[in-house]
């Protein structure tokens, strides 16, 4: 008998949760804010720059590809240059695999 009550209570809880979710208003529809040609006016050569740098780093060593993509082509392009400048003052050359030396 005890097991039956627990099952009934948990079924009731699931039903209540489903009804609550179903009764919630749907969020307003939004349009995507990302654009594939975002840098078309400010940096028209961006694709060729990225292609060149990725190829250069790939030929140098495979280890730095993810770090280069994230730090150079994400943080700098998005405008987090202040973070990069602050980091450049206290970075460890060995830990950064030497790639920051050309930027700082």
Question: Can you offer a commentary on this structure?
Answer:
- The chain is mainly alpha-helical.
- It has a domain at 46-102.
- The chain is 57% helix and 0% strand.
- It has helices spanning 2-23, 46-60, 65-78, 81-88.
- α2 (46-60) packs antiparallel against α3.
- The longest helix has 22 residues, at 2-23.
- The radius of gyration is 26 Å and the shape is elongated.
- The protein starts with a helix and ends in a 16-residue tail after the last helix.
- The model has no long low-confidence stretch (mean pLDDT 70).
Average pLDDT value? 70
**What is the structural class?**
mainly alpha
Work out the helix count. 4
Beta-strand content estimate: under 5%
Main pleated-sheet profile? none
- Count the strands? 0
User: Distance between the terminal alpha carbons, to the nearest Å?
Assistant: 73 Å
Give the helices and strands as they follow along the chain. Answer: HHHH
Shape field: elongated
Radius of gyration: 26 Å
């Amino acid at each position: 008998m005890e097991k039956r009550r627990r099952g009934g209570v948990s079924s009731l809880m699931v039903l209540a949760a489903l009804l609550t979710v179903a009764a919630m208003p749907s969020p307003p529809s939004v349009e995507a804010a990302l654009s594939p040609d975002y840098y078309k006016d400010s940096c028209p050569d961006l694709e060729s720059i990225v292609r060149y740098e990725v190829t250069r780093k790939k030929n140098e060593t495979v280890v730095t590809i993810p770090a280069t993509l994230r730090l150079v082509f994400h943080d700098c392009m998005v405008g987090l240059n202040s973070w990069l400048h602050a980091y450049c003052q206290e970075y460890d050359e060995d830990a950064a695999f030497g790639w920051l030396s050309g930027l700082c």
